[in-house]
Amino acid sequence: MKSITISSKDAGQRVDRLIQKTFNRLPKSLMFKEIRKKNIKVNKKRCTPEQILNEGDVLELYLKDEVLQEKEKHYDFLKASTDLDIIYEDENLVLLNKKVGILCHPDGRDYTDNLVARLKRYLYEKGEWSPEDASFTPSLANRIDRNTGGIVIAAKKSQALKEVNEKIKSREIEKYYLTVVHGKMPKNSEILTAYLTKNEKKNMVTVTDIPTDNSKEIITQYTVLDYYGDASLLEVKLLTGRTHQIRAHLAHIGHPLYGDGKYGIDKGRYRQALYSYKLKFNFNDENCLSYLNGREFQAKDIKIYDDFKERKY
Q1: What burial letters (b/e) apply to 174-210, b meaning 16+ CB within 10 Å?
Q2: What is the pTM for the complete model shown?
Q3: Model pLDDT for residues 4-19, shown as the tens digit of each residue
């Protein structure tokens, strides 16, 4: 005999589906037969396969032990690291501080340990999410290159993901970056406009002053925070969000990022001095995330900022 008390995460499921996902040695035909024979009950009463279970219900199965062995759970995300820097969390969102060197999503080489896998493990071990009974998988609303660090917005719910995606697109979620570039900037603050063309095969972009075939307009705003010698510390606000926009745009005007071996002058280096360090929520309407309106979040312990202050560039 086996007794299961229905938890909040299992509530709302049908009797037959919960049984099938829990016991892998119980054939469907036998399960239906035993339900008819009243050997499977809910709250000590007869049940039906399609009956919906509520939190606190007690499901009892008066069957042989050999058919009541629970399925062993093997999830790749449980192999991911538990190292997760959480800036903010509520019932809808998690703001994560992604460290330099970590992928946001799996690729061919690093499949098991990446930011989204770490998020899934965190929420699974908290009991907030399970791949077996959830209609939504926790997802990242924005992504940052492996060698760039900073704030990534993760959604716990479908509606929250939809809302964040829309607000990023409409620029109602403002993203600010810290970067260190070569040379002294011509102005203390400026809004730059150009055109960007992406080469998918090479995973590179080209920036031009005039539009070309398949190009898209880019708008990048910078403010000088400090400088010394040949290095300028900038805060950059993206007014458009294109692939490699900051790196390529600043390199285009003659001020490439330190450590950028792809668009800059530091060939052989691939740890560009770039960090997505601050988010501002400025919504124009009422939505499921309105409680965040006007709030600002900032990452801490930013290495490129500390290195600049210590004159390491």
Answers
A1: bbbbbbbbbeebeeeeeebebbbbbeeeeeebebeee
A2: 0.76
A3: 999 877 788 899 999 9
